[in-house]
Write a structure and sequence with these properties.
532 residues, globular
Amino acid sequence: MPDALRTSAPVSLAILASRVLGLVRETVFAALFGAGAIADAYQVAFRVPNLLRDLFAEGALSTAFVPTFTAALHNDGRERAHALADLVMSLLLVVTGLLTAAAIVFAEPIVVAMTRSFAGDADKLALAVELTRTMLPILVLVSLAAVWAGMLNAQRRFVLPALASAWFNLVSIAAGVVVFALGSRGHQAILWWSIGTTIAGAVQAFAQLGALWRDGYRPRLRLRGALGDVGVRRILGLIAPAVVGIAAVNLNVFINTGFAAALGDGPVAQLSYAFRLFFLPLGVFGVAIATVTTTGVSEQAARGDRDALALRTRDGVWAAAMLTSASAVGLFVLAEPIVRLVFRWGATSADDALAIAWVLRAYVLGLVPYALVKVIAPAYYGVDRPRIPMTASLLGVAANLVFNALTYRELGAPGIALGTSVGALVNLSVLRLSFGRVIARPPAQGTWSRLGALMLGNAVLAGLAWAMVYGAARLPAGGLAQRVIDLGVTAAAGGLGLLVYAAVLARLGFPGATRLQGLLARMWGRLRRRRG
């Protein structure tokens, strides 16, 4: 597991930079548009290309493409691998282009299908449809980025793809600054923001091509013989189950949007803001470790070594569990000060912030399961068994749907987020129970001692963070003083809490904890020297 942590560390930092910029983007959006009808219309509109992107571009394609491209690179050489990438890119442009055109034509029924309650509000529906059509070209643009990112990841160049979304967020933030500077409000402002979002997708798509170009790759349109190519046929065989198997998060978001919209104005935006905070550690740790693990298991699968594949997956699981469990505890205890810091600006009220905090708490209950799904699922694609993660994902989505249908009116937006966590746990359970039978059974030695160490470490972390929140709540505050207190509590609980957490795990012999402790100690030392 130390190898998984070492390899994923720069990827985590790159994703952290992207996610922090994403939070800034959401903060700017919240300040401009709040959590009302306009924000709801935008969130629904953005989810249409976002869902299609993850289904047919970044999510499913990456899962199917990386193992196949890796096998071609290792077994047939660079020229053959580049030719395969061109074939896939060309087919993808045709498919996503047709999907985009169809979605633009049928944007209104798509929006109504997502949120039936919008059908009763003509202005809200019209705005959501207009914004959907404006942002749909993102699907084509990000399809290019997905192929190029997969090529870089397969060659163990993880940082550049991880930074790609930083460009998306930077351009989106710039669009928000322009909207504010021009004094635009309402319909005009949200339309300009949506145009900026589409431009951001274009920048993200081409930000990665430079590195491949320097390596000698020249993208070419190649459609002749594409469907008969053995690599393309393997990808097509993997991608259909991957559409379901890798996109559980977005399928659940699609379902959640429908239930949230039925609750009136606000819940859709509350879920979106809370999900952004939830996704920060999922991206920084879960996605980073999953990205590195996917390349590793693809290499082991190309060699036919399933025992090594199982060991690599196990190491990724423990590394992800160590980092995301601490993140979940921190976000749960510190939900209110974090939400106030990030979103309590401009049009976002104190009641909005409190509602977002409770939604966040419900989301983070599923943080560890979601991260582990991202680490484990690629192993099944590496050995050409994509139907198992597909089945796991379907069962998870079904669990979320049933839970929400039974509880959303009583529990509101937090209940909808809780349904997402239940679905993630069901998804993980299916993947875990099938792993030993389908792939290989990793050694069970040390499992219970590691679980015990994680439970004790997180209990200590929770107690420390809660004590700081409890103490800060007794201080007189308001306005700027409240923000200073929130920042101090979050920084102290996050920094000191992680140091104590890592020390407890290292003392108990948890693999990788000593490396984490050393990294945190070095960061703390640098901060102290700068302050001195």
